[in-house]
TrEMBL record:
Any one biological process term the GO annotation gives: polysaccharide metabolic process
Boundaries of every Acetyl xylan esterase domain copy: 1-318
Record protein name field: Prolyl oligopeptidase family serine peptidase
Upper taxonomic lineage: Bacteria, Bacillati, Actinomycetota, Actinomycetes, Micrococcales
Binding of substrate, residues: Y92
Gene3D superfamilies referenced in this protein's UniProt entry, alphabetically: alpha/beta hydrolase
Active site: S187, D273, H302
Source organism of this protein record: Agromyces luteolus
A Pfam family per the record: AXE1
GO molecular function terms noted in the UniProt entry: carboxylic ester hydrolase activity
Length: 328
């Protein structure tokens, strides 16, 4: 894939106006309050595992509307005292997989919570375990258009609520320090991390990696790749639905969550990325309320920096946490 978006110099200053509904904050405050009101304490089951240096817990916590959501919680076996925690969200179509597939954070001394994505887990990887029990109206195959005619029914209302309540669940666990929680994820997981960071107070940082779900109107018109193309194909059939569809999506745009972030961010972008166009990633980063450091991978597509970028994340998070460590 050649360079197809704005020149790099223009990307770094790209700060477009993005539609934002007047009741954005009220919508999310009401959504989260309703689900928190019926949430139950998370249930952890320790698993026998060949991972001798990491304790593995199968987790079930209350997500949107009290729905049970699965996750993995991994902590170093020799941990003592509450640990800084990383909550991670997954890419589009994948599930939580198997615990040994996600060892970097626990092996680095963190408590690590990996959230399953409701209804997903059958497109790649090693599966998921969380159904989405809520039906929707007509939609194109995939998740992008489920309930897209009404923000209250839209699929990502449930996913983003799960993401926030995952942070709540982690903060309630004795092994995790509730004052030192960061969120991260790649692609869809990066978009979810942006949402969580805009909806949760008191995080120490967010690390969205090549984030999806940003600057919807530009993304839908700029790339011919899925998942954004699910929206294009839906609108090619529902020809008069565009105003309604884009109004719904404005409640879920990563740019609008970035405007509300209360913790710093490390954002990665790949300048040849045809799935999450670089201008849409920069749109969120450049609107970030606290400040986002952007790491560019000029000659990569949607894979971004992969293991190289994880090392950048680990160094960045350690630096973010260093003032806290110096005072304790």
């Amino acid at each position: 894939m050649p360079f197809f978006d704005l020149p790099a110099a223009e990307l770094r200053g790209f700060r477009p106006e993005v539609a934002e509904p007047d009741d954005f904050d009220a919508f999310w405050a009401e959504t989260l309050a309703e689900s928190r009101a019926v949430a139950q304490p998370p249930r952890l089951t320790r698993l026998d595992s060949p991972l001798a240096l990491v304790e593995v817990y199968d987790v079930e916590f209350s997500g949107y509307a009290g729905d049970p959501v699965k996750g993995w919680f991994l902590v170093p076996a020799d941990a003592s005292g509450p640990l800084p925690a990383v909550v991670e969200y997954n890419g589009y179509g994948g599930g939580r997989g198997l615990p040994h597939e996600r060892l970097q954070w626990a092996a680095s001394g963190y408590a690590h919570f990996f959230m399953d994505t409701r209804g997903q887990g059958s497109a790649w990887g090693t599966g998921g375990g969380t159904p989405d029990p809520h039906g929707t109206g007509p939609s194109f195959p995939g998740f992008m258009t489920r309930g897209i005619h009404d923000p209250a029914e839209y699929y990502y209302r449930r996913v983003f609520t799960d993401a926030v309540l995952a942070v709540d669940a982690v903060r309630s666990l004795p092994a995790a320090d509730e004052t030192r929680v960061a969120v991260t994820g790649g692609s869809q997981g990066g978009g979810i991390a942006l949402a969580a960071a805009g909806l949760v107070d008191g995080l120490v940082g967010a690390m969205p990696d090549v984030p999806f779900l940003c600057c919807f109107e530009r993304s839908v018109g700029l790339t011919d790749r899925d998942p954004y193309q699910e929206i294009v194909r839906y609108l090619s059939i529902h020809r008069d639905a565009a105003p309604t569809v884009f109004r719904t999506l404005s409640y879920f745009d990563g740019v609008n969550f970035a405007k509300r972030a209360s913790a710093p961010a490390l954002v990665s972008v790949a300048l040849m990325d045809p799935v999450c166009p670089p201008s849409t990633v920069y749109a969120a980063a450049n609107h970030h309320a606290v400040g986002a450091e952007v790491v560019e991978y000029a000659f990569n597509e949607h894979e971004g920096g992969q293991g190289v970028h994880w090392e950048r994340q680990a160094a960045w998070l350690a630096e973010v946490l260093s003032p806290w460590s110096a005072t304790h």
